[in-house]
Amino acid sequence: MSSANLGTWACPSLHTTNIPSTLNPFLHTLKMLPITPKQGRAKLITSCSPLSVSAVLTVKAKEIEDTQNFNFEVYMLQKANTVNQALDAAIAIKDPEKIHEAMRYSLLAGGKRVRPVLCIAACELVGGSESTAIPAACAVEMIHTMSLIHDDLPCMDNDDLRRGKPTNHKVFGVDVALLAGDALLSLAFEHVAVATKEVSPGRVVRAIGELAKSIGAEGLAAGQVVDVHSEGLENVGLERLEFIHLHKTAALLEAAAVLGAIMGGGSDEEVERLRRFARCIGLLFQVVDDILDVTKSSEELGKTAGKDLVADKVTYPKLLGIHKSKEFADNLIKDAKEQLAAFNPAKAAPLLALTNYIAYRQN
Hints:
about 375 residues, 2 strands, geranylgeranyl diphosphate synthase activity, metal ion binding
């Protein structure tokens, strides 16, 4: 539903006749700080590989670094549990009960908690503490949940299933679902401002500004509107697709990492390295998501499978085919890990493992 210098974009495996030369120039826009919508319409393409339904990314031993016996599963469970407790405490049932019930229904419905865990890990990486990052981590998850509620509405993706449960509007009605999303959005900013402790006012204001930008007309909303208006169009190209997902998906992941680094007292250089890292894994998340959408069932995903095909949406597999989509993902993995090379390996272990998790997840 969001920036910095990635260095030279090494993508030799994408130089094929099936992929237009416009790909690399566009990827260089990843260097911009911050993202701004490109002027004019993206150059369209007509050549692409046929859609395949082969297996999703395969785990390769050589791709999984030795992170000093770091147990990512335990780490994720511990952090997710802390986040879930904090989210539960952040929204009590009170009058009017209906909207609070609707907010809690989607916010506490489970999920991987990738964004809040990313926020906490980034904070700890630069020397901060979990408790310092928790309010920002919760805020990011509130906004992510808002985006899911709104995405599922009949006027958007019109979906019936989310995180293995009926979508919010199916339970509470479209009117309450819309308002519940609005309430979560406003609560996110209130929570950062009120609940953050032992962080300078300047850093809190900076974090709030980053969060707001990531979801507005230069972030999530920009990606969403271009996505909506791309449905059913013929010859939608890679440049437009990248714009959609840099804003719609990568923006909030970027905000999570940047907020964590800011709250943790990170230097400007550390903040920007984590910004670049998060942008890479944000695109990676979407590439994998697109592959899973055509290779997994609704039961396996916990949401409606194949809905992008039904809606005639442009995706990486549709434009590139599964094989080239995997190659693109491999390059994103490498670039993401390069950004972590400047940090203490032990402290970077959670983010290295998170990268592998995003790359090789099955739902």
